Amino acid sequence: MQMDLRTVSIQPLRQTFSNIARRFGDKPASRYQEGTYDFQSTVNFHYRPTWDPDHEIFDTARTAIVMADWYAFKDPRQFYYGAYTLARAKQQEAAEANLGFVENHNLVATLDADLRQRATDLLLPLRHVAWGGNLNGASVCAYGYGTAFTQPFIFQAMDHLAIAQYLTRVGLLLGDESLLDQAKASWMNDDAWQGLRRYVEDTFVVKDPFELFIAQDVALDGLLYPLVFDAIVNDVFASQGGTAISLATQFMTEWFKETRRWADATIKTAASESAENKALIEKWAGHWRDRAAAALRPVAQIAVGDQADTLIAEQVEQFNARLAKAGAQV
Amino acid sequence: MDMKTSSGKKLGLKEKYRHMTRGLDWETSYQKREDVHPLVEYEGIKIHDWDKWEDPFRLTMDAYWKYQSEKERKLYAIIEAYAQNNGHLNVTDARYLNAIKLFLTGISPLEYMAHRGFAMAGRAFPGAGPRVACLMQSLDELRHAQTQIHSLSNYNKYYNGFHDPAHMLQRVWYLSVPRSFFDDAVTAGPFEFMVAIGFSFEYVLTNLLFVPFVSGAAYNGDMGTMTFGFSAQSDEARHMTLGLEIIKFILEQDPDNIPIVQRWIDKWTWRGYRVLTLVGMMMDYMLPKRIMSWKEAWEVYFEQNGGALFKDLARYGIRPPKWLDQISFDKDHISHQAWATFYQYGAIADFHTWSPTEDELDWLSAKYPNSFDKYYRPRLKFWREQAEQGNRFYNKTLPQLCQTCQIPMVFTEPGDPTKICYREVDYQGEKFHFCSDGCKEIFENEPEKYKQSWLPAHQIYQGNCFPEGTDPTAEGFDPVSKVLEYYNIGFGQDNLDFEGSQDQKNFAKWRGMATSNE
Ligand SMILES: [Fe+2]
Ligand SMILES: [Fe+2]
Hints:
B: two-stranded antiparallel sheet, binds fe (ii) ion
């Protein structure tokens, strides 16, 4: 039934939901706020998990980080599903255009054989690293506490999957399917990759969701993405005639720039909550940074030979400065 | 996305998808598989070959973003236009809004729970196929939760009862029914979760949830709900395929899995059916313009469609769920029994109830020739007469609840609608009460789980449902008002009869403004 209604202005009884009003007062709220705050249950759970009877379904005790309010976290991108999906759809279009451009103009043929080989050896095993990031994103989303904290991790999980899929397509631009199998064999067996594979597998058994966030999204992604996609692909490779590769991996560069804003905000909120949190974050970040830096050295060597040490030292320095700005001294 | 290799060879869909998912996975060697995926064994399900999993929908992330963003763009444009044009004044009658309150408090927070549950399941499975499918569904479920809250945000601005859904879900007596259902599923292992939610709920019962609400919205002029409903339905196709695939996969992997899965199907069909009581009541009593009766919906969507499904599953050694005879008998009764309950407890609910009009009573008589005139019409008429004389009946004694489904013990004996059905079990020196053989058996299979149930009526009597700092020994202590405060149900706004409510008055006033020239 559709009636003809005159446009009338009627006075609303309230501006937003009660839980939002309790936090911010009764005023118009954003979609991020209404879609995020207090969605996850916190009290009166019916049963303990049969898979973890020591905890409630959602339990602050799964992490050593202590927050008075887990909704102190705020995603500076204000990503709820709709905002996230629209943002990624746009980036996806750009990535598609870039990959299409490289393919249609057969730009891979302009790479010299040595560069093409180094790019292949460096980038393709990273598919598996991203696949690991997918699993870890799922972990934090599943077992973390409070929607403001957990919501970005389902986005991280799916983004990592997308990156693994984009790298697969880069691989198929660089050669045929056998390259993917070779890269997997390197990932499984080559000495250069074993440090990184061990790192990734070790993160799979980290139970504390916040530590896992530090190990995966802060330390590993925080060193790997600027090292591989900025310092190596965008600088070194591009200077050697490899702009095609840089074009084909632009998604990753943009993605890291965007997601680190969220990661920094998350660290900052937790670290500024208490000295204990700050100390924990510093301990974890220091530990995983050192491991990640060591694991990435032989990987960088594949691409840039003995420049690797310098590049990694620079990355570590930038990483430390970045964390210092977020309130953690490492 | 068109994908070729550099040599120009076109990859087939299957091959392409393999590289995009399965090819990414590897057998860990620095950490043992049982440490990386510790939850796959303990339910007793045996999986020999994860590669036998057929990916139900081969969707890469770039395609996912593309499709979904198109849907989001359309949906939010409609949400905005609906809000701007006061679309809520188009609904048939303000009573209709109470059906949507039931949805927002009873369903939307469960969509959120599904989001977290599928993240858990995706994390738990070692196979790449199920992992990707579960995580994509986890993301979709977040979408459902958020598009629902965003769509209904506008209703909340103008009407009562919408204002605190997540808070109420964790406290209000009847909302422990849907909530405990989902708490039950996520506290089970990953395989049971998938059978519970992916198969039993999303595949077998989903039409009984969504069709009534979405068609109900369409019939009653609620474009807002209709739009998010249809938009969510388009994800449902993927979810249903996942639900069916998981069942077939588990059953094909090992014959020892059959009895475990059968017990889960029995349990979750019954649990789901009990939750759907709320939907049945909504269909028969809360839609000013009815779509079909609960009984008809059950016959079409379960007895016919479900019947075909279970015929299909027979070749795996699966039989139809238990207690279907009882359900079939009960379809003449449960919606009426539920409405009578909410009518009586209308003082402590977050939505309004009312006496059906004479026309509506006639509709119910026609739809329920075997039961309505004989058992239910006289009571409703009596209540209406009482209300008209100023004696609107509110029950002030808390009901006994079923330990498993948590519904008040209002259902009747299979075969005798004049006698309340009671079952009980002694366990560890305590007596536990049940509404049915189904709920009793579910308890007996897992007493350690169900003895934990947070039963709202018990919790009130134990003093756990008052605002912090309440002193029940203080002079003039009024338990009902304190419970409502704990629930955040505003007395005289969110609760009581629709007749005389703010919703009723405001809607009449606003619609009058919008349809007249004054
Ligand atoms: Fe859903
Ligand atoms: Fe029950």
